[in-house]
Write a structure and sequence with these properties.
The complex is a heterodimer of chains A (685) and B (566). Chain A is an alpha+beta fold and 685 residues long. In chain A, the strands form four sheets. A seven-stranded mixed beta sheet of chain A has the order 10-22-21-20-11-18-19, sandwiched between helices. In chain A, α5 packs across α9. Chain B has a domain at 20-279. Classes of the chains: A alpha+beta (685), B mainly alpha (566).
Chain lengths: 685, 566
Amino acid sequence: MLSQRRLERRPRARSLFDRPIVLRAVVDSFKKLDPRWQWRNPVMFVVEIGAAATSLFFVRDLANHSGNAGFGFAIAAWLWFTVLFANFAEAVAEGRGKAQADALRRTKSETTARLLHDDGTEERVPSTSLRKGDRFVVDAGELIGTDGDVIEGAATVDESAITGESAPVIREAGGDRSAVTGGTRVLSDRIVVSVTASPGESFLDRMIRLVEGAQRQKTPNEIALSILLAGLTIIFLIAVATLAPFSLYAGAHQSVTVLIALLVCLIPTTIGGLLSAIGIAGMDRVMQRNVLAMSGRAVEAAGDVDTLLLDKTGTITLGNRQAVEIITAQGSDPKEVARVAYLSSLSDATPEGRSIVALAQRQGVGDEEAPQGSAFVPFSAYTRMSGLDLVGGEKIRKGAPDSVIAWVRERGGDPSTEFASQVDRIARSGGTPLLLAQDDAVLGVIYLKDILKPNMRGRFDRLRAMGIRTVMITGDNPLTAATIAKESGVDDFLAEATPETKMDLIKREQMSGRLVAMTGDGTNDAPALAQADVGIAMNSGTQAAKEAGNMVDLDSDPSKLIEVVEIGKQLLMTRGALTTFSIANDVAKYFAILPAMFATAYPAMEILNVMHLTTPQSAILSAVIFNALVIIALVPLALRGVKYEPKGANSVLLGNVLLYGVGGIIIPFVGIKLIDMILAALHLT
Amino acid sequence: MTFAGWLQAIVFFLIILAITKPLGTYMAKVFGGERTFLAPVVRPLERLIYRLCGVREDEEMTWHAYALSMLAFSAISFFYLYVLLRTQKWLPLNPQHFDNMSPDLAWNTAISFTTNTNWQFYSGESAMSYLSQMAGLAWHNFVSAAVGIAIAVAVVRGVVRTSVKTLGNFWVDLTRCSLYILLPISIVVGLYLVSSGVPQNFHAYQTVVSPEGFRQTITGGPMASQEVIKELGTNGGGFVNANSASPNENPSPLSNLVEMLLIFSLGAGLTYMYGKMVKDTRQGWAIFTAMAILFFAGFAVAYQAEAAGNPIVHAMGVSGGNMEGKECRFGVSASALFATVTTDTSCGAVNSMLDSFMPLGGLVPLVDMQLGETVFGGAGSGLYGMIVFVVLTVFIAGLMVGRTPEYLGKKIEHREVQFAILAALVTPVLCLVPTAVAAIVPAGLATLNNGGPHGFSEILYAFTSTNANNGSAFAGLGPNLFYNVLTGTNMMFGRFAVAIPALALAGALAGKKSVAESAGTFTTYSPIFVALLIGVIVIVGALTFLPADALGPIVEHLLVLQGKTF
């Protein structure tokens, strides 16, 4: 629950219905009555026109002192409420993002940057004047002016303004941790940064625009659904418009107010009013998990994902593998081997390295310093080894077995095969074997054990039930990978993965018609992130990776991918459920309004008044009120999403059809009857 | 209702069920370009036609080209019939010396037969020469059915094909459908009809003196050959005005059964062909099941209403079902069944007078057509109409399972929804808007025989029937310029304004990549999907037409219960 804890610290971690958000939303609901805003939502635009028209008829009736002004007023008022409720839903959905954007803007207060000229002189300039390729200097305590890559030095940086995580992170030149973000603060040391973002295009700028929804465009699915809703609106418009002449034929003149009331009840106002709120809230839910989605399209695509590529480390296993055993050759001194292992890892700050030091100490190695003048050789993805070069020319290495064996051979050694069975055994049991070598001899094997994250099997089972295949990506050899894959319950694995094999896997999956999601952080992940349908870049990663992905996880937690997929699915399900509910509602509304309209011309129709509504007027008014109230009642559902259970598609479909389809037919009968009873009790009809 | 009455419907349905698979398999072969057992006879003829017309058999068409070819063919065949009707007086095979048709009636009739509607504002036995019947109307019965089936096949290809732009060749589909499917069945069943007593001659009408001593005119003509394709091609235009109620067109209960089987056969076969072509016959059976359920629901209501009879008549001491306007040879059950069958499809042939049905009995044909005639449906148009509904259902259902909706591996996105909803819009617009106009303008009310809700039903029925390309009539509505023009226009749009978006939908689908299926994809042949499909068809239909139907048959039914008639 790491991310949960972080959320609590964040200024933006507000409840959906915080007082200030709701108050602001109420004001915004009125602002959104502006037709220039409304027309983008055809369903609600029709309601607004209806509300305006009924208001005019009410004024006319009032002026003429004709009988039905009270009824006309009630209808007009409730139609306005219908529009306002829909506006309110959207405004509340936007509220949290807006509050967050305000907080971010405060961070973005004008800063100065120390621009570094080619001749080495510094100049203080406003950070907004920095251009791509400029270099600037940041010292401890200063804010970083804009996004860039560290090209000189290393520093600890407080990124809490962006990520909410208060623990400082290390940013250094070269490698995968070189990216710094504008608006974050250097805590120690001095770095030189090369600018990678033009003004107004920085991560912070984009983040503000995203959380605010200023750049929000309709997603493909939203467009498709809007077309369906517009089509239904046209159909009902025709059904109601033609009802006027039909009624004339039947000798039952209908007032325009009643026809508009019927129209508004029939067109899909429930989903029409909540559609944009559902989309915004979906983005917001992703945001609440500290993932920044670059577009709503990305969140939607997440719901369609068929294949998840999950990095083993950090997603399936805890990031740090622990050394549990040092296996030595027959006849060699275990303590001496442990000492070499200790030396090799002394300057190795990785969790694995530290665990080797700790293990060696448990085995009796003293608190020894590295010999004077020795040089630490850090691990790199190419050598796949790390170690120590001693002053005397002796070299110690530990690393992946094949790399170490090759290294020993190079130095004239003939690595015995005696460790082969040990390496195999460790790999087979899911551990990581490291060979330890000094010059031309292999001394022993260090057994690093992967610690599986708890409850992963259950999660993969759930994903499988949803029809999503999980593929574990690991640099481990196939044996190790197979064991961990089996233990964790993942469907498949890609061992000894390189950026190229990862890319190939993605393309292969896509060729067979599957959508692929992945996480990545390194620069060499960037092409794969761009190729994947959903690519989540870790915020700790490089600028290139962050540019390539369509989401950025500010917590840099690869297991978020699973949650994002669930949010995407929930988003679509919420739309589908409310569409079904909205259409199913129409049945009851017909039974309320039609008999009421023709009560005078055809008294026989009273038999269709199955709800036994008090009077024709109260029947129509009750239906209109129900129609408005149902929007406000469903706002929490729209914002939080429908209840989501990972199950197979057919059982999800059955459940939702029963709940929102059949329920959608029954509920309005009850609701309209109740409203009618209240109206009757209050003598309002 | 009686057991025997239900038995008729059940036996009828079981026979349909039995022929669905063999017929569908055969049709899949024909449209897949495979060799069939008829090839030795038909293939040379087929090639001759291609050579004469300059058709390149292997040429593929985009949806635009397909639609344009279809429109061009329809336009030319329309003008051909119009000219024939306007000149029949001077042409041969006119033993009764019928005059040329008036321009507006000829226009209405030519559109009617081009669009597979066969709405008849004329009486065949008193207006049509044998040449017009045979070379005009019967010929149209063949080709308009073939056009419908060709469109359906193209739409199915759109569902099947991936990442291509083409849907097949219209001319080839048209030719193969006529030569391999319509003609052979018509020849065989036509011979049966002749043997059962349907006339097939060029005689002038015979005047005979009956045993009771009054003079009677017996119509003749090439009737059997037109009768068979009238049903098989779901055309429905009778040789004579009384249509299949006339003993000449429909002599016996057995011929009645055969005619009903002809009406449903191709629609049912197409569902299996669909399953074959998409390589999953369960998909075809799912559609078949949805159709079968809607069929039985319609029949049950109609049969119940007719069997229960008229309470006003009962009050006079006459018990039993409603026999008014029905042939004694067929009775209540076979009449209700025929009415359901003929309006489930776009046939519109009748063996009883729908105008005389009880209000709820008459509601069934009306609703059947309002649902877009998707229950086995018109020749071809039933299947492509159904596919439009399937796309809409998949879209709504797909969202509910949390994925971008997909059907048979194709993602349903905004273009597909756009074309589907466009096709679905046509029926409500074209049924309701002209009805609204006719219900208030004097020209619309001038030729109306009945008042009140029943009169309203007659207007609504006329526009529903023409729009749905059904052609059956509630009668009670006389032709005039207003109705000739309005129903003609309505038939034209009812046909092409659905077919073109359906082809566009197919074009969009054909261009799509196929996506992989997983446990996250809901199956489109499960009972729940079938139920949902029925729900969407009924709700989209019912919700749109409920106000209109309520003011017609429904309120009339309620008033009949109170003893009022119109």
